[in-house]
Design a protein that fits this description.
The structure is a homodimer. Chain A contains 9 helices and no strands. Chain A is an all-alpha fold. Chains A and B meet through α6, α7, α8 and α9 of A and α6, α7, α8 and α9 of B. Chain B binds a DNA duplex through α3.
DNA sequence: TCTGAGGGAGAACGTTCGGTCTCCTTCGAT
DNA sequence: ATCGAAGGAGACCGAACGTTCTCCCTCAGA
């Protein structure tokens, strides 16, 4: 999918371009930033952009693809090979909470993107759907391994909590959001016996 | 706030304008639709738009204000004066679920809007925050009346489920989303004893 | 040594953007 | 009867949009 340099790997200008696009798209949205902003901050010329990408849309898709890969790495990194399955779920939840608490958090890149691309047939919209499908399946499998039944309902519940936490994380107090989220995940794991903590 | 006709109420052109803007903004986003589209579909002229609104931004604010009023009406309408407090919560949840299931549902107008206006100082962003604050307080009060303690934590939990449901409602199967949401609300009300239904 | 891709610099393309303007008509209230 | 707001029709503005183009330089691989 990524058409880098003919001879070998990424190309420095392309890396700078994609990195800058990622930072700006995530922080400010997609439709509201023009290619001029991106090429300026990436310190490349207009021609360089269009040598590596067919247009802005492909840049957006590359941005989401990078975010997708980052999240996959984050999740596989959070799982411990010899831990209890429930602890893998907790680790994933903790990783999500850490992201929400981190400075510069601006919500879920995919939920933000899909808000700007409502058309279900649009490539960007489809990329979001594909990512979410993978995430749901991954979480469901993790919960099933942890013995939570029915696993698919639990997976949907987990994703719903996550979506709500990601959406509210940059609109409310992130600490309270994370507390609520982790609490919800815990009661999902223990079957609702975690209503003790404030 | 609404500067309608000098002599009396709304003015028909203004109503058409706001209705069209509401429909298009909700269905397609804000930045990606221009004023030309709106004045064309509202069948008014350019001058008429700028006679009733100072610019596009004020039109966006009016759109969100209308959505806010609609939701307030929906919630006060869902509450029954002589019902048990928990049933008021259930009624609100059911109203939300009905919205998600309805055709043309495209997520939460406020979450969608704030994804396009990340700047916390922007009037549109602030309008979203104000709406969400009202909603959180309203739900928290309802839950407190129902005897759910601590009410503020329960309110945040409810809002988190709602946000997740609204976000996923137009990306997954709405039926499953609603089922998951209502199930989550029920277990919030009964203290986690609602893990029986599939 | 040559060749061709990568990249810089920048002009230019046509389109759309949000917004302002003038001119004319309708119509209700004073 | 008249005055002024509401509205239609449409020209117009400068700016930004995404995109394509030419020209030149550099540098690594064949």
């Amino acid at each position: 999918m990524s058409r880098g340099t003919r001879s070998g790997r990424p190309s420095e200008a392309r890396t700078r371009l994609l990195g800058t696009a990622t930072r700006i798209f995530y922080a400010e949205g997609i439709h509201s930033v023009g290619v001029d902003r991106i090429i300026e901050e990436a310190q490349v010329t207009r021609a360089t952009l269009y040598r590596h990408f067919t247009g802005k849309e492909e840049l957006v898709l590359a941005y989401l693809d990078q975010a997708d890969q980052g999240m996959r790495a984050q999740i596989t990194g959070a799982r411990a090979p010899d831990a209890a399955p429930e602890d893998d779920v907790r680790a994933v939840a903790r990783a999500i909470a850490d992201g929400i608490r981190s400075p510069g958090f601006r919500g879920c890149a995919f939920l933000n993107a899909v808000a700007e691309y409502p058309d279900p047939d649009h490539p960007v919209h489809r990329a979001v759907l594909a990512h979410r499908q993978w995430f749901l399946e991954t979480v469901t499998e993790l919960l099933g391994r942890a013995g939570i039944e029915p696993a698919d309902a639990a997976g949907r519940h987990f994703v719903m909590l996550r979506d709500g936490a990601m959406a509210a994380g940059c609109l409310f107090d992130p600490e309270l959001v994370c507390e609520t989220f982790l609490h919800g995940v815990e009661s999902l794991l223990t079957g609702g016996a975690a209503a003790s903590r404030a």
